[in-house]
Amino acid sequence: MKEPDNEQYYKRGTLAVLGVLRDLEHDGMPIMVSHARGQFISRILSADKDLLVLDYGSNDYDNQVTLEVRSLTVTAEMKGAKVEFSLEQLHEAHFGGLPAFSTPLPSELLQIQRREYFRISAPLDPVFYCHASWPEGGKARLRLQDISLGGIGVLVEGEMPGNLASGATWHGMRLDMGEYGELQVDAQLLHVGARTTVSGKNETVSTPRLSFRFTSLGPVQERQLQQIIFSLERVAREKAMRFR
C-alpha cells in the first residue's frame, strides 16, 4: 500500500480514520475482505475509537478460514473514491445477537479519489441485458459488456439508428442482471464506437458499442451495484484459479 505517490492520500489518526469508516457504515456500503486464503463480501456494522465490527460473510467456511488468517486487506468504493486498509487479524464477536468479526481500529487507511471507476466485465453466460428506448422511439435490447459504479458499456444487437448523439440522456434504462436483480437508471451517452472481434471463420466482426455514464444513481442503487460488482469479481477470480 505504501507507495510514495500515494502518501498524500493516507488518513492517519483516530478521528480521520473514523470519519471514513463511519461514512461506509452509514451508507451501508459493501466491502471486500481479502486474505491469502480467499475473500468475501462484508459491511461495517460499527466503528468507534477502540473497535471495528464487520459483518459475517454468507459462507460459513469462509468465515472460519478468515478467523485463522493473519494479515487482511479491506477495500471499498464510496462516492467515486477507493478506500483500502489493512488489518492484522479478525476475532469472533457478536453484534445485535448475530455472529460478527471484531478488530482494533486501523491506524491508517488509503482514500484515493478515482478519475475512473473500476470496471468489471459482464458474464457471457448468463448474458446480462440493458432494456431501453431509442431516442427517436422504439425498444432497444442491448447486451451489457461491462459495468462500474460510474456507468456501463453495451453492445448493440440488431439494427442501430444512425443518428445517435453523444451527450443525450437516456431515461428509464433497465439493467437485467439475472440472479443479481434489476436496476432502473438514467444515463448519458458518452461515446458511440465499435468492438471488433475475429470469428471462428477468421472473419472480422464489428459490433456497435455504446458507453454510458450514470446521471442519477441513488445510495440504495449504488450499494446494490457495488455488491454485484464485488460478486462478479469474486466469481471471475475463482474461475481464473480453477484454470491455472
Automatic annotation (TrEMBL):
GO BP terms, alphabetized: bacterial-type flagellum-dependent cell motility; regulation of bacterial-type flagellum-dependent cell motility by regulation of motor speed
Every PilZ domain range: 113-230
Coiled coil segments of this chain: none
Main location: other
Sequence ranges assigned to domain Type III secretion system flagellar brake protein YcgR PilZN in this UniProt record: 9-110
Superkingdom to which the source organism belongs: Bacteria
Locations listed in the record: Bacterial flagellum basal body
GO cellular component, one term: bacterial-type flagellum basal body
InterPro entries hit by this protein: PilZ_domain, Split_barrel_FMN-bd, T3SS_YcgR, T3SS_YcgR_PilZN
Listed GO MF terms: cyclic-di-GMP binding
Keywords: Bacterial flagellum, c-di-GMP, Cell projection, Cilium, Flagellum, Nucleotide-binding
Quaternary structure note: Monomer. Interacts with the flagellar basal bodies.
Purpose of the protein: Acts as a flagellar brake, regulating swimming and swarming in a bis-(3'-5') cyclic diguanylic acid (c-di-GMP)-dependent manner. Binds 1 c-di-GMP dimer per subunit. Increasing levels of c-di-GMP lead to decreased motility.
HAMAP family per the UniProt record, alphabetical: YcgR
Family of the protein in this entry: Belongs to the YcgR family.
UniProt-recorded name of the protein: Flagellar brake protein YcgR
Species whose genome carries this gene: Mixta theicola
Native organism taxonomy: Bacteria, Pseudomonadati, Pseudomonadota, Gammaproteobacteria, Enterobacterales
Gene name for this UniProt entry: ycgR
